[in-house]
Specification:
The protein is α/β, with parallel strands linked by helices. It contains 26 helices and 17 strands. The strands form 4 sheets. Strands 4, 5, 8, 10, 11, 13, 14, 15, 16 and 17 form a 10-stranded mixed beta sheet that branches. It has a 3-stranded antiparallel beta sheet with strand order 6-7-9, with no helix packed on it. The protein has a two-stranded antiparallel ribbon with strand order 1-2. A hairpin with a 5-residue loop joins strand 6 and strand 7. Helix 8 packs antiparallel against helix 9 and helix 17 runs antiparallel to helix 18.
């Protein structure tokens, strides 16, 4: 590397923090900002004594744990409530219409379904179950078995088939053919559902159970595959009054799809629009027949209803005051797919809710999704069990449907909104793959061009300015993928172009703010603004329901049912990297003004809040992210304070993260079962001995994503190579760009190392695998590049100038 000429090059920042200003050398003074200071013992020997700050991190973690324990106590106190008499419905009717989508409903063609929408609550249903190999859809049999078990279930075979007709038994009932085979197959799946839960609980409580149709028999059978009463159609069933649970199948869509023939690949041929409309109309007539045959409410019939006598196994102790006799609750669900692409399906509830009051017209939700107008197929089972006044076993993972505030909007508006949600999920499925391909390709191309500008010096200072601007825009792309959900891009004529333009628009707006104020002249100015917007936007999102992550290209898809609320793994990666880098920029600004103590306090305080928000069930509900995030923040703060990161400190920080998320999970577990998130559910799985099943499934998913997603793996390798082989190496400009940025803004080094540590541990602890470091680097590397090229611009090139032409000799010419 060429030497720096005297009086030029990188100058030491002044006390005010203004880069490039020379200061008078001062005599070094002892500092108290390191993790330890040297003092002399009573015998003159030196020993290390912790400073005040070295105790700040453990004290902060202790305070976080104490706060969580206090909230744990509050949660525990709130689980016991007084018994309040509530009215149960006299019976529950579950109507399954596999394949029914919101776009199928029409006031003229489906008047009975339209009437249900106008009289009850509605939602889109995520019907994810165990799909056939390499298909990604839910077949009708899998949909019905999921209702039976209250957990994702499936059926053996490579394709979709119609349910088999039950076989009559000598006692007047029926049995499901091949039940043992179905149970054995599901015992080998990752979810290990217990088939027959719904039928077993209802029969065990003394309720009469009836099934209408082969699919309904799958849902209503007990754990041995038996149904007390089976009928091929609703007319054959006769009077409905004696039954407490009736499951009805309207399989017209499924029959039209599966019976329409197969393609050469063995996939059912897609239905024509006319065929689909006719099938939906037939299904609507089945629904209308069921509704017309429902007995009138007890008050209208003039006869009180007698509640069943539950067994000790199924009774709810806290529901002893509940009584029966409030008519019928109808639960209708789409249950399965009838196309080669997964969809969101119809969910409607009419009649008394688990709370006793009728489901009002409007949108349904559940604590399993926390999203207005969105429920899961497993929630249907939990709702039926709750309406029957029974206690769901741990194997039932859903939560009861709940009503939102009554809506005054007409049925047409409700149907249109829910159909738009399914449209968004379909468009997302089509654009996500191409979007990431474009995203990765553009990122790699930008790194290559930036490497040429920095290493070769092509384009001069103008090229550096361009690189900085593009880097800031690139660093804002990640959060803009979430902010894009504020615009209905999926409804525009060209969705792929629309999502790219929308994301770029938000990124440019954020970059405009980053370059708008006086902070733009500091190396960490734009970085801090973009990182702060990233952190606060995602923090506000999880505090208000995570709506920006639903159907975002980097968020979660409700149609796949992987996650519905809190921080997704990609959102966590973006949030954690943005938070640590924002704290680094803020700390540098405070330290440059002589407020080091305040800087450390701010970093610990906001870092602790960010970690807590990531794990708290009401907000981020992120299990694997908390230990990784806490280690990343701890590494950052230790380095910022001038300390050294040792394996012991890393281990203690990781242990503190495990204790923190463990305490949060136990606090969540102490809540009532129907209010727990997956954090509390995992504690119950640990108690039930099922934890290794969950861990094994997550680990398999992590390996699959890492091995199978080559584009994100490539992006990760290129980003790391650019960071350490380009930015951290000497260039044509002299010293390394990253080294100059560190010299002008030392807090950047601490922030970058903390963000990288968080990404690495997050990669090891989350089932998204390589997606965690890939998205974290998408934030960290471009913003670090922006700071580095700004540092180069503030420090003129240090390469030696061209040598001058030798002067002519002044000696007299030789004689």
């Amino acid at each position: 590397m060429a030497s720096t000429p005297r009086g030029r090059g990188l100058a030491r920042p002044a006390a005010t923090g203004t880069p490039g200003t020379a200061t008078r050398p001062r005599r070094p003074r002892p500092t108290t900002t390191a993790s330890a200071v040297v003092v002399r013992g009573s015998h003159g020997s030196k020993r290390n004594r912790p400073t005040g700050f070295s105790r700040t991190v453990p004290v902060t973690v202790s305070l976080l744990l104490a706060a969580v324990c206090g909230l744990l106590g509050a949660f525990g106190a709130g689980t016991a409530s007084a018994s309040v008499a509530r009215v149960l419905p006299e019976r529950v009717v579950v109507i399954g219409v596999p394949g029914l989508e919101w776009g199928d409903l029409d006031p003229e063609r489906t008047p009975n379904l339209w009437r249900l929408v106008g009289e009850g609550g509605s939602a889109s249903m995520s019907t994810r179950a165990v799909p056939p190999p390499d298909r990604g859809i839910t077949c009708p049999v899998a949909g019905w078995l999921t209702v039976s078990a209250g957990q994702r279930a499936g059926a053996p075979g490579a394709g979709c088939a119609l349910p088999r007709t039950p076989e009559a038994t000598s006692d007047g009932g029926a049995s499901v053919p091949g039940w043992d085979e179905l149970s054995a197959f599901n015992a080998t799946t990752a979810y290990r559902p217990v088939l027959g839960q719904l039928g077993r609980l209802a029969a065990g409580a003394g309720l009469k159970v009836a099934a209408v149709g082969p699919g309904a028999a799958l849902a209503a059978a007990d754990t041995s595959g038996k149904i007390a009463k089976y009928a091929a159609n609703i007319e054959e069933l006769g009077e409905l009054s004696p039954y407490g649970l009736i499951v009805v199948e309207a399989d017209d869509l499924a029959r039209a799809w599966i019976g329409g023939g197969l393609t050469p690949d063995g996939v059912p041929v897609a239905m024509t629009a006319q065929t689909r409309r006719e099938a939906v109309a037939r299904a609507d007539r089945v629904v209308g027949t069921v509704l017309d045959r429902l007995p009138p409410p007890p008050a209208a019939a003039g006869a009180p209803a007698t509640p069943p006598t539950p067994t000790s196994e199924t009774a709810r102790p806290q529901e002893a005051g509940r009584t029966s006799g409030s008519g019928t609750t109808v639960l209708l669900g789409g249950l399965a797919d009838t196309s080669t692409a997964p969809h969101l399906h119809v969910a409607i509830a009419q009649g008394p809710s688990p709370g006793g009051e009728p489901y009002p017209r409007g949108y349904l939700t559940a604590t399993s999704t926390r999203q207005d107008g969105l429920v899961a197929n497993t929630d249907l089972t939990a709702t039926a069990i709750d309406l029957l006044g029974l206690r769901a076993p741990n194997g039932v993972v859903g939560r009861a449907w709940q009503s939102q505030e009554p809506s005054g909007e007409p049925a047409a508006a409700t149907v249109r909104k829910l159909a738009d949600d399914d449209l968004a999920s379909q468009v997302l499925r089509e654009v996500r793959g191409p979007f990431f391909a474009v995203f990765v390709a553009v990122q790699i191309l930008f790194y290559l061009l930036a490497a040429v500008a920095i290493r070769r010096g092509w384009g001069g200072s103008r090229a550096l300015t361009t690189v900085q601007v593009v880097a800031v825009v690139s660093g804002a792309i990640a959060v803009s993928t979430f902010l894009a959900q504020l615009v209905p891009w999926w409804s525009l004529p060209a969705p792929m172009a629309a999502v790219i333009v929308t994301i770029l628009g938000f990124a440019c707006v954020i970059a405009g703010v980053a370059f708008a104020g006086p902070w733009r002249t500091h190396p960490l100015g734009p970085l801090t603004v973009v990182a702060a917007i990233t952190s606060t936007a995602l923090l506000a999102d999880v505090m208000t329901g995570s709506v920006l992550q639903v159907n975002a290209v980097t968020g979660y898809e409700p149609v796949t049912g992987g996650r519905f609320y809190g921080f997704s793994n990609i959102a966590f990666a973006v949030y954690s990297a943005g938070t640590i880098l924002a704290l680094a920029g803020t700390a540098q600004w405070l330290i440059s003004r002589g407020r080091r103590g305040l800087a450390l306090t701010v970093c610990v305080a906001y870092g602790g809040l960010a970690v807590f928000a990531d794990g708290w069930p009401a907000w981020g509900a992120d299990f694997g992210g908390v230990p990784a995030f806490l280690v990343g923040v701890a590494v950052f703060v230790i380095l910022l304070a001038g300390g050294r990161v040792s394996p012991v400190k890393l281990g203690l920080a990781g242990l503190a993260g495990v204790l923190l998320i463990g305490t949060i999970a136990v606090a969540d577990w102490r809540r009532p079962a129907d209010q727990r998130t997956h954090l509390g559910a995992f504690v119950q799985q640990v108690l039930d001995g099922e934890a290794w099943t969950v861990v094994g499934r997550k680990f398999g998913a992590m390996i699959g994503v890492t091995v199978g997603n080559w584009s994100l793996s490539l992006l990760t390798l290129v980003a790391l190579a650019f960071l350490f082989l380009v930015l951290d190496r000497p260039s044509r400009w002299g010293a390394s760009a990253l080294g100059r940025a560190y010299a002008l803004s030392p807090a950047l080094r601490a922030g970058l190392i903390g963000a990288l540590a968080c990404a690495l541990i997050g990669f090891l602890m989350n089932d998204s695998g390589i997606a965690i470091p890939a998205m974290a680097l998408t934030v960290a590397v471009p913003l670090t590049l922006a700071a580095s090229v700004r540092a180069l611009a503030l420090s003129p090139p240090s390469t030696p100038g061209r040598p001058s032409t030798p002067a002519a000799s002044t000696a007299p010419p030789a004689p």
